[in-house]
Amino acid sequence: MNLSNLQDPQLSLEPENLLRRIANIIRRSLEIEEILSATAAEVRRFLATDRVKIYKFHPDGSGQVIAESIRDRILPSLLGLNFPADDIPLSSRQLFIEARVRSIVDVNSRQLGQSLLRDPETGKLVRDDIRYRSVDACHVEYLTAMGVKSSLALPIFHRDQLWGLLVSHHAQPRSFLEPELQVVQMVVDQLSVAIAQSILLASAREQAQREITINRVAPRIDSLSGLDLQGALEEIVPSLAGSGGRLYINSLANTGEFPITNSQLPITNPQDVEIYTCGPQPVMPEQAKFNLIEQYSVWQEHFKPGGEQAWAISDLYRVPSLRTLQPAFRATQIRGILIVPLWHSQQLLGYLSVFRDEIETETLWAGQFDPDGRQVQPRLSFEVWRESQKGQAREWTEAEIELAVSLARCLTNAIQQYIKHQQLKALNANLEEKVQASAAKLQLAVEQQQIFYGVVAKIRESLDLDTIFTTTAREIRCCLNADRVGIFRFDPSSNFTRGEFIAESVLPTWPGILGERIRDRFLGEQAIGYQKGQIQVNKGVSEYPAKYQIAAQIIVPLFKGYELWGLLCIHQCSSTREWQANEVQFAAKMALALGVAVGQAELLEVSQQQAIALQQAAEQQWALLEVVAKIRESLDLEKVFEISTQEVCKSLQADRVAVYRFNSNWGGEFVAEYVAPGWVKLVGENIKTIVEDTYLQETAGGRYRHNETHWVDDIYQANLSECHIAILEQFQAKAYAIAPIKVGQQLWGLLAAYQNSVPRHWEPEQIKFITQMGSQLGVAIKQSELLAQTRQQTTDLRRATERQRVLFEVVAKIRETLDLNAIFKATAKEVRRSLNADRVAMFQFDPNSGYDTGVFVSEDVLPEFSSALEAPVYDHCFGEQYAIHYHQGRVQAVSDIYTAGLQDCHRDVLAQFQIRANLVVPLMKGGDLWGLLCIHQCAFPRNWETEEIQFVKQIALQLGVALQQAELLALSQQQAEQISQTLRDLQDTQTQLIQTEKMSSLGQLVAGIAHEINNPVNFIYGNIAYVREYAESLLNLLELYQQHYPNPALEIQDLADAIDVKFIAEDLPKLLSSMKMGTERIRQLVLSLRNFSRLDEADMKPVNIHEGLESTLLILQPRLKAKPDSPNIEIVKEYGELPQVECYAGQLNQVFMNVLNNAIDALEQSAVNQEITDTPTIRIQTFVFEESAVICISDNGSGMPEAVKARIFDPFFTTKPVGKGTGLGLSISYQIVVNKHCGVFKCTSEPGKGTQFWIEIPIKAN
């Protein structure tokens, strides 16, 4: 509700104060008359009208003015007047109920305005404007006669029933605005809550009054020495608002005598009945068949065992079955009769009858007669109503009937107890020997009575059923000296075939039955008798299970009202038992008391539930008022959404409440939520939940456009589409209620409440509450938009100031430094921030491209968009069509590249950088077009303002000055750099020449040594085979000689022993084999030296990379072996399938030698420093990667920090001690791999994780 629409600015806060005052009145007072009177006065002051009255409907459609407030007696009072039903006809009352219509009448214009809150056909909540039509002429005449020129009427409801009307009358013409209707409607809603609370309070007071009445009657019939039934009757009649009554007692049911009072009427057979009367009585005609009305068959036929507990007759002349008795009442004013039978088990003891006279219409008047002519019409209506009440009696209420039944039960129990007492006295008079037994029985009866009243007192003190059941069971068992007493409750859904013992008292010697569940078809058959009040008494039991050990039992039904609730079970387990009548009666009485306790507990539970429902409705109204107040305190939408979702979630006790905002295509996203712990979040940091609902998109908001609130109790039972259910399952929802949020007439979004844990039934008050919250949020959004417009104007002024500041800072930056990159970077950052753009970039044309190509040389861009820095751009459209215009100073401002009519080629270039809108200004260096200053909006289209374009042009002009200054500086710096570079190149060339010469000399030396060693080794290797052959021949000859001449000469024998011929024969072949292996090893070493030097392969040729690696490893073999200060270094080879690679083999071997030497140095140093615990290992991997051969050489040494790794390829850089290295190995290796072979040479290393060198050589030379 927008309270700002009220005419008087001074009253802008009056509605809020009005609602607060009325809420305080409801909170402070429990009297509905006081609340209604105060509310009428407050509403009259708010509307500034002459009269506000509150009209309450009677059940027959008539009604009465029960509260009124009049200003300065401008109009006469209607307070207390009753009006007939046709003053407000049934059709009007039906419209109030179905549409919740608010009615406005303008007498002068004869127009009737109606504002509907519900659709009369569908019953759904709507918000309808005031619609006018012609008013009935009779209505105009009625109001004119009353002096009323304008009126307003709003219906008041209690639990969806039309309770009454709030009516405002004004003696002058007056129009009522929609905001005023909404305020008064909120007042009416609060009145509904107050009325519900007052009805609940009245119910509690009626219950208390019934208890007082019962307590007042009980002492008169609670004495065993005599029953004051006359006094009890005289107490009962006024408590039931009766004019008279009678008590009919059938004494044939007993053997005692009743006291006779002087009020007893003459009867034909005094020995049969006793009659007690109070007030006017019917008189039977002389020709009547019977003298007593209770003797007629209508009484006997109407009241039967198990039948009605009471017969309430509002008008005895309208009951056909009473026609024979109507003459007896002709001489009286009696119209209504309430008859209650006095049943005890199956025995009818008599009747309690209460009479009620017809309404005395002559006393029906309202206030002092007012001669004001404007009172004539209301008085005529009142007279019509009074005439309609002639011959009518007030209806008997349910509370009165219930009280009468309760009092009848007290009378029945007292009479029955008195009968037993009288029977006991009669027996004692004849039998002296039975005095003690009779006294014992009397004492038992007294104890039972005391126990009974003790239990009743406990029931009144406490409604805790468990405590009542446990205490009562123990009292009954002790009183009857039974072995076990249990209370059995039927399962309500079992049709009396199963149940459970919920309380017991049992002697320790017998098994307990607490919690024992019984399921028996026979139990259901017996329930028919129990429902009629039959008591089962067994002196010997055999059909029950042996585990219960029941020898005798009494089973008494327990009733909750008229419904069979359970059983009171009294067990004798030790032996069979003859149950006495007084014991059975005592058990029945205790069962009756327990039934009352069960009924009262249920009543309390229902009352508590109603109180909770009313409290929740009140809390929701308070929550709405508090949220409205907080919305007015803050116009920050995020704060408003946060407060609203939290309050609605708490008030509805939902799992999630969220605000959903539509976008232009009727899709949308969640912008705020309050969610209970444990459920997935839809809104939050880095959380963005977008929902594309095809139904909402196709229908442009669907039902919500028409201000409908939609709710579903269970999404799986509501016939929703599968895609709709899938969307809801993403939110973990099982039930939801959604209300529209409208800003003016435009559907802005939705307010949604979700129940995730279980399905849920949404109450009408909850739907109304969330609908009201949706309306309030719409108002808050509208107010926020108005505030945003004001703030925008302030922002524009601040932006202009900010742009001047940025321009001055750019000029200052240009003066401070001639570093173009720094100028561009600072300028881009400041301009982007000032214009709130997504990207600001400086684009430079390629001078030789004819303005077709270029690159972004500097930018400042938001993180969520891709960078355009260094991105090459080719756009032939620009060079052909746009460049000449930018030469002339053209500025391009495009709000949306897709609607600006750009060439396809130009638009495609812009789209690749996510550009949606752009502002482009030329950057001129002197008279040349150097580049462009580009302002990009990527997230959405943007209309560029004139002030923004001028600002960017000024920035571009200053950047042009900076370009000219930077060009002069760059020219000077370039010349200095050329001189410096020439010096560095000369130094590098000298270093490489020296190293190349060293390696060439080393290669020649190695090749010469290999050649000199190779000749004698080849000679030795070639003759070893002949030596082996000759030696074998000589040894065979010696063996043959020893066979033929076993006894040689002594001299030969001595020499043979001296030289150990046998040992020579065995060792000589082994010696020759060793020599052969040695020569082969020397040949391999020579071959490796030749392969390493490759002097014969100085040109680029296809070679086997693995041979070069093996040659290098062979040369380095001595360094790999263990030493005193370092362990053996393990070589792991993981060679892949490599083709022949075109390369400079000798230079590549030099690279392998440098890398492997460094790896060995690193492992040895790590071992010395004890930085590794594993075996020192060098791993060599080879494989093909794309069109190159890759050699990866890695170690598990200590690695190197980033600072060292960044300089390892620099000339003369080394980390080794002085004299251990030159710092040229890796630098030269880098030149060989990258410059000579166009390959890749890189290093990967981390401290503690070793080092890897990646060598990548193209398989085919470029």
TrEMBL record:
It catalyses: ATP + protein L-histidine = ADP + protein N-phospho-L-histidine. It holds the Pfam family GAF. This is histidine kinase. The keyword DNA damage does not apply. Residues 421-448 form a coiled coil. Residues 31-190, 464-593, 636-776, 819-958 form the Phytochrome chromophore attachment site domain. PROSITE patterns: HIS_KIN (PS50109), PHYTOCHROME_2 (PS50046). The keyword Coiled coil applies. Residues 1008-1261 form the Histidine kinase domain. In the N-terminal section; belongs to the phytochrome family. The lineage of its organism: Bacteria, Bacillati, Cyanobacteriota, Cyanophyceae, Oscillatoriophycideae. Keywords: Coiled coil, Kinase, Phosphoprotein, Transferase, Two-component regulatory system. Its EC number is 2.7.13.3. GO terms for molecular function: ATP binding; phosphorelay sensor kinase activity. One of its GO terms (biological process) is regulation of DNA-templated transcription.
